[in-house]
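Journal club side-thread
Mid-discussion, someone asked how the predicted structure for our own chain would compare to the paper's figures. Pasting it here so we can look after the session.
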Amino acid sequence: MVVDPTQVLRQVFGYPAFRGPQAAIIHHVLEGGSALVLMPTGGGKSLCYQVPALCLDGLAVVVSPLIALMQDQVQALQQLGVPAAALHSALEAEEASAVWRRLQAGHLKLLYVSPERLLSGDLLERLAEPGEGGSRLSLFAIDEAHCVSQWGHDFRPEYRQLDQLATRCPQVPRLALTATADPRTREDIRERLGLGDQPVFLASFDRPNIRYQVQPLENLRSQLLPFLERHRGESGIVYARSRSRVDRITAELQAAGFEAMAYHAGLEADQRRQALERFRMGSGVVVVATIAFGMGIDKPEECFDYGHT
């Protein structure tokens, strides 16, 4: 049974109408089609798979490269009453078992996983096992799909394995989504994910609510500290090239009296989780992070980005 997507949009997410190509994308997916979607960050990419997931019978699997991004989206969906969960390495054994129990009982509509987690072991086979009336899978959404392409700026070899989805689950629609892909990268994504002649939906990238200011980096300390002083009390992200620079800059900012926290893959899961939660919910928190932090995170107030350092 397919539920009316406009009804889902209004009743679950609280929006009166779709924007840009959202409606066309969602109807295409509901008709069983796959596609590549290019839409700016904050432009509503997540609704393009979350709404179909709630309209269709079965489970939608969302492939995401970042634990922080998974946690943020799952928490937001749960607050809306949507049965969503994630499987990732930061979960305690008891938490992972609880997710499995919900999966086996058919109580989830969206499951967020990394490409490694989805394709290692027998997870995909277990998810694709037939339920009542056919496959339990309704949709694959590949978020940050530029990670598939060797021409993309954030290529991840693990994403290459996703070419298996077209052969192992050919009946399940695949929706690849990204905010950053030039024509060469788009074609590589389409080829790698087996999208064939399926359409490309391209939204406007005009973001009037974002202001860019670019200047040469001459001296980090003499430029960064005055910038942060002008924004003291505001939340923001300072991007650094390496984990060691993240740790060093965090220490310098803390010594200067800023509420600064580090975020990178070398930290313990609890440290990353704490940094993410303080950034999402607090004011005046400056996170110093490697480039991946902040992707897809909904922040209920304005914040600044300073990078790359």
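Post-session note: Residues 6 and 17 are 7 Å apart (CA to CA).
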